[in-house]
Design brief:
This protein has 63 residues and is mainly α. The protein contains four helices and no strands.
């Protein structure tokens, strides 16, 4: 529970993360939905998914 003190929000942060479904739940509804990736693969530069290859020859604009 949050104690109402604005200079100590650690308890509030923990409660909010739990209320929103934990870190995994937050990422599933924000990061994954916003990037259209279903998993962590492809979200980082070090590990490419196949998205780059599939988009290589696709016409992206009408120019």
């Amino acid at each position: 529970r949050h104690d109402g003190k604005l200079w100590n929000l650690n308890n509030y942060r923990t409660d909010m993360i739990q209320a929103l479904g934990g870190v995994e739940g937050i990422l599933e509804h924000t990061l994954f939905k916003g990037t259209y990736f279903a998993t962590w693969e492809g979200l980082f530069w070090e590990k490419a998914s196949g998205f780059e290859e599939s988009m290589r020859w696709k016409k992206l604009t009408n120019a």
